[in-house]
What we know:
The chain is mostly helical. It has 17 helices and no strands. α6 (96-123) runs antiparallel to α7 (128-152), α14 (267-287) runs antiparallel to α15 and α14 runs antiparallel to α17.
Amino acid sequence: xxxxxxxxxxxxxxxxxxxxxxxxxxxxxxxxxxxxxxxxxxxxxxxxxxxxxxxxxxxxxxxxxxxxxxxxxxxxxxxxxxxxxxxxxxxxxxxxxxxxxxxxxxxxxxxxxxxxxxxxxxxxxxxxxxxxxxxxxxxxxxxxxxxxxxxxxxxxxxxxxxxxxxxxxxxxxxxxxxxxxxxxxxxxxxxxxxxxxxxxxxxxxxxxxxxxxxxxxxxxxxxxxxxxxxxxxxxxxxxxxxxxxxxxxxxxxxxxxxxxxxxxxxxxxxxxxxxxxxxxxxxxxxxxxxxxxxxxxxxxxxxxxxxxxxxxxxxxxxxxxxxxxxxxxxxxxxxxxxxxxxxxxxxxxxxxxxxxxxxxxxxxxxxxxxxxxxxxxxxxxxxxxxxx
Length: 388
């Protein structure tokens, strides 16, 4: 049975469900947890911005180590063990300084695994959609569990569930193959090791990074403030978890049918679509006076937009970056996204404190509109099949 589990579809299911459950359990309602222990909007934004600060430095390093390591599984196993342990420590802390450092370390380690998860989904013997969809299910389950844990359990319960999800992910990691052979590669051929200069001398890649900066900064703020927006409109925390869970489940058709459009549409068209969806939802959040309208838009658009962007990043990196630096390229994109999170999270906290959450969303809509203009200059040629 153990030999049949190795590199089986079930092992990938457990791996993706576990990883995305970790992500949502720790991050989806963290803003609600922090305000619940007495933090102001500015203090909460400061603690949440640590994720971007730490990830900016940690993600590229772990990505490069992962590309060079003989055993990527060992690297990922250490990361998962550290996440579970630090999450339990986080539950016992109340000081802003300690929470800042711990949140930064935990989210940096979680974010550092995302490039590997995306690369494996795009390069394994199974189609991207039928693997990545289990991440969506894991995230939805984690978001629902996080909302219920905040409402029904002591604070320790949420982070104990995070540690348990790390254990589940480790079980999947043990069976999954994280160094799959890419199409066109010869078995046992020496691994290609291009230099980092291949990233530095790449203007199209830098233009995409600029667009990603605007989108990801606003998306990160939305992830943290969406539960608070619902709370301010009178929706209870348990129901907030349900809304976030339903929102995540709307990704499923997009992921399952990714092979029908992701390899056919240009990177420019997909980037523009991401910005159009972002502008639409942020405008509605800023102007809507009824909670039901915000809930409907959040369920239908929020997760779909972020998932489309995640798949787009994989496509763009595979098109613009040498094969031997795929994980590093994804980590650089993640690092830029985290830098955007540092800037946007603190700016958003200040704007929300001065004029309210809805005014903050209006500013984010304007920034994403600027990103849509920037997309007009993006040029990418792609012949590679990633999602089919």
